[in-house]
Amino acid sequence: MTDALAINLDAPCWLHQGYRSKGYGAMRANGKQVAAHRYMWTVMRGPIPEGIHIHHLCEIKLCLNPQHMTLVTPREHVFLGNTWARRHIETTHCPQGHPYDEANTYRRKTKRYCLECRRESDRRRRGAAWWREYRRRRREAGRTVR
Fold this sequence. Notes:
Elements: E1 20-21, E2 24-29, E3 32-35, H1 36-45, E4 53-56, E5 69-72, H2 74-80, H3 84-90, E6 105-108, E7 111-114, H4 115-140
Antiparallel strand pairs: 1-2, 2-3, 4-5, 6-7
């Protein structure tokens, strides 16, 4: 790679002025619609490997300046932007302040839930009489009572 194409965020963005698709610049090349930033990368830097994403370091989807782009894997790409997935992974405690750790977390599909919050909700919903009966039955069965 030449110094002319080295990453340089001080260089100005080259904003795509044409058609847009999903927030990115789009254009026609060889009779097909392509993402303008991907086309610009292939023209100026060469082919993009299969399954690799281009990340805009300047965070501007319409930027075509190859000095503002880098190749990343899809997994890396999730962590680079201000995305829901990144914020979800970085969250270490539930909204009430209980930790998301192995002992206090249960998962359902892709979501995490706090067991302590679930227990508090159950206590409020079921009431004191229900819990007294529940604990009595567990003691009689020889199980531990929490």
